[in-house]
């Protein structure tokens, strides 16, 4: 059985990621790209998060393309109204998400 070095609990019961999720300030914006295309930018993820996993989950739920760079998730299209419920479903605090 492996022990988490941060919290000292077994890996199956580790709560480090949940603690990090509750203490973040996430900002959702849109940006106009080339040829008038709109993309949704989600910023504010701390370095302790698995941003790749979050980006993949959001892309699957929204059925859109996207990427992540420098702890910023970029999704193709305008998804401002749909992102907040999905982030809450992934375990983030509703109060810490701003549009």
Number of helices: 3
Strand order of the largest sheet: 3-4-2-1-5
The percent range for strand residues is 15-25%
Low-confidence stretches: none
Coarse shape:
elongated
Report on the structure:
This protein is an alpha+beta fold and 99 residues long. The protein has one domain: SUI1-like domain (Translation Initiation Factor Eif1, 2-Layer Sandwich). It has 3 helices and 5 strands. A 5-stranded mixed sheet has the order 3-4-2-1-5, with helices on one face. The mean pLDDT is 85.
Brief sketch in words of this structure:
The chain is built from three helices and five strands; from the N terminus they run H-E-E-H-E-E-H-E.
Secondary structure layout:
Layout: H1 16-22, E1 26-32, E2 38-43, H2 51-62, E3 66-69, E4 72-76, H3 80-89, E5 97-98
Parallel strand pairs: 1-5
Antiparallel strand pairs: 1-2, 2-4, 3-4
Label this structure with key terms.
about 100 residues; alpha+beta; Translation Initiation Factor Eif1; five-stranded mixed sheet; 3 helices; 5 strands; about 25% strand; elongated
């Amino acid at each position: 059985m492996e022990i988490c070095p941060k919290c000292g609990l077994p890996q199956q019961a580790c709560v480090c990621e949940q603690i990090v999720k509750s203490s973040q300030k996430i900002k959702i914006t849109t940006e106009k790209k080339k040829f008038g295309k709109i993309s949704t930018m989600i910023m504010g993820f701390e370095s302790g998060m698995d941003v790749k996993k979050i980006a993949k989950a959001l892309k699957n739920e929204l059925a859109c393309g996207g990427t992540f760079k420098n702890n910023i998730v970029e999704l193709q299209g305008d998804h401002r109204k749909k992102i907040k419920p999905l982030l809450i479903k992934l375990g983030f605090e509703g109060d810490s998400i701003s549009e």
